[in-house]
Amino acid sequence: MPASTRHHRALAVFVHCLGILAAVPALPTAAPEAAAAPRPAAATPRPAAAAPRPAAATPRPTVATPEPVATRSPVAMVARVTEPTPPSAPPAVAPPTRAPASAPPQQVTVAVATESSPAPRYRIQVRNVSNSPLETTVRQELPPGSSTTAISGGGRSTPAGGSTTEVTWRLRLPAHSTTTLGTALAATAPGRPLTAPTCAFTSDGSRPYDCATATWRAAAAPAAEVTEAPPWRRYPVLLAGLAILLLVSAALVWVWRRRRGRRVTAAALSTGGEAGGDRGTIYPRPAAPNPVRRRRTPPVWMLVGAAVVVLAGVVGTAGWTATRQVAAIDTQKQPTSGAWTGTGVNGSLGVPLRESAFEFTVYRMACGAPGTAGKTAGGGAPPANGRRCEATVGVRNVTGDHQPWHSELQRAYLPGGRWVSTDESATRTANLGRDVFADPMAAGTRMVLPLVFTVDGRDPPQQLELRSGVFSAGVRVQMP
Description:
Distance between the termini: 109 Å
Structural class: alpha+beta
CATH topology of the domain at 335-478: Immunoglobulin-like
Order of helices and strands: HHHHEEEEEEEEEEEHHEEEEEEHEEE
């Protein structure tokens, strides 16, 4: 055999051995599995060996014990490798996102409606949808400067701070019952809408069950009957008459000028005929050259003065425009004025305000006495005159997907342009230990919850800014 052929065969045998060795590391993964959980005897014996042996019906006690891997023949090892294996587990995927937060089931619902009357009147329906009786406190915020004339259901009108007044009821609601309350306000200026938000709280008044709002508007006065004006007082008729008068005047002027020109021409011809009868033949006179007149130009001082006046006017107009634009810049403007998504919306207490993802409604704002603020979220000492202001806010997800929101983006603005974010620890305590910002809101859901702000000083917040995201324009609610 030639040397080259022997070398090729040796190389082929070497490569074949390498292939077998490459398959050997896969065997230990199957061997421990077989040792730990041996297969039934009916599945492990080879089909060819089960038929000729008559004693196969009475297997020996050691048949179920798997043979050591080291004693298997290479053929058995290859057969073991080529056996079909169950499909492997799917590849690792990213962990699922946080499940959207669903609002807890409501035990008490509130509905507010207005009545068509000359003076503002509100009808409140409080319903207990639970299977047990409940005690609740119902509060209705009255518009600033308004006063009540009638309160039903044993409610009391008390000042709520500043110029606002609230009506309070303490009710015991039987299971699956509905209680109707009513308030009437004194007549106000015509055309002024009045919004009165109403909330049902727990018996101690700390946690809201549900809130609703309604805006009363005076009935529109019937439109006065408009009589048709006479034809000579209608604008189209007057314009048509004026146009006809102008056309007639222009025609008369044209006729008069034409007749006058004819008369002048006739008089000149008659005068020339009489003078030329005695002089005989009149030959045309040679045309005398017209003197060249120099075109008059304005003096230089006039041109320079006009240019100076125009330049001064342009500079003055530009400076005045720039001054107005600079003066229009509000240095205390809120951060949302340059937002990227949507347009900022301003409103008052109890008015639903919608931004890009959420619809916010601020129903109530109550602040404690100065010096009653607890420890801050980091465990530090509270401000000397600090106090907590709790806002009852309704949040509705108006999008088709779950939306997150963050406590740092909900702000209360104080006099002077200062602002504070939501106190997370106090808000969690007010919500019975539930972190309302931990999970996103599910699509179409609505929650009524308290947001707590820790402020310093004696002045309450003047404005609340609520947003769903960093680039959302958000809404701003003016406090009374």
